[in-house]
Amino acid sequence: MFSFKRSPLLIRKINTNKAEIYLTFDDGPDAQCTPAVLDLLREEGALGTFFVIGDRARKYPALVERMIHEGHSVFSHSIDHRYRHYFRSRAGLKTWLTESLRDLEAQTKSQQKVFRPPAGVLTPPLMSLSQELGIPLILWTHRFYDSTRPWIESAAHKSALKIRPGDIVLLHDSQKSQNCSIFLKTLRFYLQDVKKRGFLFQI
Ligand SMILES: [Zn+2]
C-alpha cells in the first residue's frame, strides 16, 4: 500500500490518475465484525488496509494472519489508541510511536512504513517525528463516523458519487455489536456502487 515515489509527510489521498481507491479499516481486529468484513471483501474481490491497534492484534493473531494471507495490508493505528500520548513530551511521544511500529513489525513480520494517528489527531511534535522517522501519517478523503453511528446506504452512495482516483476511505472493522450487520450491508452496497463507477480497490 501507499508506495510513494517521494513520501509526503501527511497523506489524505494518493496521487494517481488510475481509477483506484484505498479502503482503510481502523480500530480492529474485532472478534465479531472483522471476520465478517474479511468474508465480504473476499466475496466482492476487494482489498483493503487494516490499521490495527497493536494490543488488539495481539489478542487476535489469527485474524491478523488472515488479513495478510488474504492479501490485505496491515499497518499501525498505535499500540493502544490512547489519546493521552498526544500530551506527552516529544521524547514520550517518540517512544509511543516507535514502540507502536516496532510492536506491529514483530507481530506482522513486515516493515511498518506508515502510521495512522488515533482520531486523526495531528500535533506539531507528531508531524515533526513523522518527518524525522520517515513515517508518513495517513489520514483520509472520505469518512462516515461509522464507529459512533450506524453507516447507512444513503451516506455511502453520496460518497460513491464523489469518489476520485486515489481517494482514501476511512471505515472501522471494529463496530459496536448492534451496528455490525448494518455496517456489513452498507459496505457491500458501497463496494458494488464504487465498482459500478469503474473503480478498483488498491492496497
Ligand atoms: Zn481509531
Overview of the molecule:
The protein is of the alpha/beta class. The protein has one domain (10-201): TIM Barrel (Alpha-Beta Barrel). The protein contains 7 helices and 7 strands; from the N terminus they run E-E-H-E-H-H-E-H-H-E-H-E-H-E. Strands 2, 3, 4, 6 and 7 form a 5-stranded parallel β-sheet that branches. It has a two-stranded parallel sheet with strand order 1-5. The longest helix is centred in the middle third of the chain and has 19 residues, at 90-108. It is globular and about 45 Å long. It starts with 9 loop residues before the first strand and ends with a strand. The site of zinc ion has 5 residues, from loops. Residues 26-27, 77, 81, 118 line the site of zinc ion (ZN).
CATH homolog superfamily? Glycoside hydrolase/deacetylase
SSE string, helix = H, strand = E?
Answer: EEHEHHEHHEHEHE
Q: What general form does the structure show?
A: globular
Bound molecules: zinc ion
What's the structural domain tally? Answer: 1
As residue ranges, the low-confidence spans are none
Give the tally of β-strands: 7
The number of helical segments is 7
What share of the residues lie within helices? 40-55%
Which class best fits the helix and strand makeup? Answer: alpha/beta
**What name does CATH use for the topology?**
TIM Barrel
The CATH class assignment is: Alpha Beta
Oligomer: single chain
What is the residue-averaged pLDDT?
Answer: 95
- For the record, give the distance between the C-alpha atoms at the N and C termini, rounded to a whole number: 4 Å
CA radius of gyration: 16 Å
Describe the largest sheet: 5 strands, parallel
